[in-house]
Amino acid sequence: MHTGKQTLFVMSILFGCAVRFASAQTWFQTSLSSGCIWSSVALSADGTRVVAGINHLDEDLQDGQGGIWISTNSGTSWSLSGAPGAAWISVGSSADGNRLVAVSSDEDFVPEDYDYGIYTSTNGGLSWNLTSAPTNNWISVASSADGMKLVAAASFGSIYTSTNGGGTWTIGGVANTWAGVTSSADGTRLAAVSHLDFGSANPNYGLIFTSTNSGASWTPTAAPAKNWDCIASSADGTRLIAGVLSGSGSVATSTNGGVTWATNNVPITGCYSVASSADGSILTALENGGPVCLSTNAGGTWITNNVPSDYWRSAAIAADGNRLFAIAESGGLWTSQMTPSPLIQAGAANGNMTLCWLVPSTNLILQESPDLVNWSDISIAPVLDLTNLNDQLVLGMTNSSAFFRLIAP
User: Is the pLDDT of residue 16 over 50?
Assistant: First the structure.
């Protein structure tokens, strides 16, 4: 029993130092079919549950060949979900991977018997329900960590939000040429990017907008008007990364929720998809027809990865940034696993000690030692904090020193 006062020293010694420098990753192609037109991928916080959508906009694809596919083992094996055949454009996932959301587009050249709209699943994709959201040319969707707060954008229209898992929807934001949306873990901070429309003088086109009240109101940021195409957020919503479809300055980042922006020196000429770790330190940017790029210092420097150039459509990163997925339009899904170096943080209040660390993308065990020689497992299971995607453990305090580490079993 942990009681009394404690002199505490907390450290993470798994795999050495917690500082990581960018280096080329090893990528593997999963067994997901490369004979379809893929559009989007999303992950649970630990990267074990994966959801990937097929875009039926290719006229050669027949109904039943596509849909939404799910994996419960980080992409090792796949199964076709219960989603109907549709032109799936964007997918999103809760932190545990049980609540999913997907949008299908209402395009003129898609067969009329396809089911359009926003669909949700509460059982990891086994079954899906069409929500009350209107039929629209949906382009992007994002979810809070609990899966209850959703945000969806139409390519030529408005932004809709839901606070009850898609049960009801509220229209918000200015009408725009929206291209992508993202959400903080708690669903409070949202961000959206829009395309330029060179045939219109609408001053809102080509801007990045943010919301700090779950979409009740939206504010244009100081980011320059460009052909923005994608955006991603850290768990707290303060760190953002946005990509430009073509032209100079293909990637921009913000560390203050979009108040100011900095252009990143990414070795690509256009960015089709971006993704961020929960703390915003690990970022990836995909070029449509080019490489997959990685930054491990919040966009300070970037490297090109040893994965074949392809028509990349979507990227996703686990909360700790160590498991990455990239999906190519016709090349299937690729994944990379980096060596985790988790950092345990500690705090004390009211006679208790709180340990927390970003939910890992590999199975780790928390151990305790009085002397750095003898270690024992802590059997108490941590609880996932849905506001920051940290695993958190509360222990009573003792009158002796203790050391902690995370280690692979």
Answer: no
